[in-house]
Amino acid sequence: MKQQKRGGVPAAAAVSLLAGFTVCFFAPAETYLNNPAEYHLNAAHALLPLLLTAAAVSAGIFLLLRLLNRLHQTAAKAAECLILGFTLAGYIQMMFYNGKLGQLDGTTDILGMTTLYTYVNWFVFLLILLLPLILFAATEKKPDSALGKAVRSKKTVPFLCGTLLLMQTAGFASLLPNMSIASRIENHQSYLSYAPALSLSEEENITVFLTDRMDGQWFDEVLETDPSLYDILDGFTFYQNNVSNYSFTFPSAAFLISGIPYETIAETNTFLEQIWNDERNVMRKLHNSGWATHFLFEQGSACGPIEQIADCADNILQTEKAPEYNYLRNGSGIIPAQLKLSLFRLMPYLLKEPFDCHLTPDSFTVYDMELPDKLMQDVCPQSDLNFYHYLEHNPVHAGSSRKTASFIHLNCAHDQNAELAALCPAVAQGAADPVSTACGSFTVIRRYLEQLKAAGLYDKTTVIILGDHGRFPNEVAFQENNRLNGVITTTLLIKPANAEHGRLRTDAEAELSNRFFPASLLEYAGLPHTDYGISYQDVIAEELHPERTLYLFFSQEKLVLENAEASDPEESFRQVALGRTYYTINGNARDFSNWVFHEDRNADT
Asked: What is the average pLDDT across 248-263?
């Protein structure tokens, strides 16, 4: 009996190693090697923790199987079969998910969607998961049959597991040329600093506030909530007839800051790399023309790693403080993030969604660097609060020997937050909706403008406040044919240098678009702009009536829209991400009869 209980050690060891190393090492390691620029980690920080975790998990699985074997052999064998089945099923799923973040297998199925494809995918996963258990149970009464001998042979499971481990090792080795050998600690010691961005020129400046998700009609409500803004926005004009050209932060922010349109379906990282290597980039043009250019915007939507903009950003500083890497602290860190991505690859489509993650440079490199002048890498309510409090002790001042162009990305109406909303005295206590939160962000802008005046720089500075996009399309009611039921406008306020002083003016006539922003930025800087199309001033001065376009979705986006009116929960999700879905607008953008729907499902651009 004791001899019998000691049996099965090779199989248990093989299954434990396969499960531990597939889930905890090979799946996340391949993701790292396929996306080295996303991680901002060298190989030691990314792979060694995975290797140690895989060894520990393998040992833990083996000990549990052996303990269970002493208590109940049949239960132990069933557990061993299920662990092997899950690992095999997950390994097959990895063949569909190629490890490039943001890509699946080229199908148009959205994560979590209940379609024939996802049901079949789930059925195959479940079948493979149960297959070892089914085969073992089916051969219990005939262990001496040909199938029984094959299934129950002491060599079968170790051979199968060893083969899969060798295959994964070979795949891992083939990706090693992508590995970041050199330490990238210097990237973490580089950061975007508020300090240089608050040192302006006594000659000329341009400051752009990119207000996230700031719909033009929501700004109407901001003015109703806080009428004092009419006086604070001294010399500004609110252009009410403005629309964005894209409906989400990416590619909106990337286009606004580069002037390079998102004309082809490309991965986020690929497009960001392209625009910062392109000499047409408008911020690069300003920098090359002698302007000091300051970037206080979100990494991940407007640029990738800091080194991508190192040659044209004048507010990158270095700290000698080495980062403290968080591998496993407070339920977060490098190891949990890696394992979450691993399960994303291993799970069937219907179960992938909970393990999907939006990556930022901090997703895998969670480290402590308490620097008061450091911009957070995610734009959020806290980043607005940090900037506001930094301005308390470090006001805007004249100190730059060069003209300056500063691009400041604020949370505004993107994420609702009562603490940010509370910055505005006019907001009711505890309010946390898009409008009240935007009021808080405009209080941040208010402090900046007041300091411009105090420093004598107000008349020498062109200030542009614009939304990267308006409200999300799913916040505007949809008809059954996936068309909008109302308009989406985007906030645009402009105060040129030396503008006539006075209360905030409104202009409902000028037919403007964020598409005209790059040309306008160059024009305000006194540089040629016609290569980038028409500018705001071209439209206003010449009373032009350009056709404007708002692109709603792109096929590479994994966009799921919630229909609150649907009675069946499974019908509350709809896919609107095939080809291009867009509207053209002629005339008053606040009149929905001027919006024309287009859907080109065969478009490549």
From this structure: 90
Closest to 261 measured CA to CA, from 516, 577, 598, 494: 516
Residue 299 has what DSSP assignment?
A: B
Confidence of residue 460 (pLDDT cuts 50, 70, 90): very high
SS3 307: helix
Assign 3-state DSSP to the chain and report helix, strand, coil percentages, each to 5.
45, 15, 40
Cα-only R_g, the chain: 28
- Alpha-carbon distance 14 to 1, whole Å? 23
Cα separation, 347 vs 94, whole angstroms: 8
Q: Is 431 exposed, middle or buried (0-12, 13-18, 19+ CB in 10 A)?
A: middle
The predicted pLDDT at position 151 comes to 77
| Cβ proximity of 27 and 346 under 8 Å | yes
CB 192 within 8 A of CB 44: no
Q: Report the pLDDT value the prediction gives residue 530, as an integer from 0 to 100.
A: 94
User: What are φ and ψ of residue 152, in 5° steps?
Assistant: -95, 0
| pLDDT at site 579 | 40
Q: The tokens of 424 are what?
A: 């505005």
The CA distance from 147 to 143, in Å, is: 8
Instruction: Report the pLDDT value the prediction gives residue 331, as an integer from 0 to 100.
Output: 67
Q: What is the pLDDT of residues 462-476, one digit of tens each?
A: 999 999 999 988 788
Among 78-87, 393-402, 580-589, whose mean pLDDT is lowest?
580-589
Average pLDDT over residues 268-283: 89
* Rounded Cα–Cα distance for residues 39 and 171 (Å): 20
Q: What digits encode the pLDDT tens for the residues 322-343? A: 667 778 776 677 888 888 889 9
| Residue of 444, 471, 579 whose CA lies nearest to 220 | 471
Residue 530 has which token pair? 């016609």
Q: What are the residues whose beta carbons fall under 8 Å from the beta carbon of 565, sequence distance 6 or more?
A: none
209-221 exposure pattern, b = at least 16 Cβ within 10 A, e = fewer: bbbbbbbbbbbbb
Phi, psi of 350 (to 5 degrees): -65, -20
Helix (H, G, I), strand (E, B), or coil: what is residue 460? coil
What is the tally of helices (H) and strands (E) in the chain? 23, 18
How many residues appear in the chain? 605
What number is the average pLDDT over the span 103-107?
38
Average pLDDT over residues 197-208: 97
Question: What SS3 state is found at 146?
Answer: helix
Q: Among candidates 571, 572, 552, 553, which has minimal Cα distance to 562?
A: 572
- Give CA–CA dist 65/78, Å, rounded: 10
At 65-101, the pLDDT tens digits run 999 999 999 899 999 999 999 999 999 988 876 565 5
State the Cα–Cα distance between residues 290 and 274, nearest whole angstrom.
23
By the 8 A CB rule, do 368 and 329 touch?
A: no
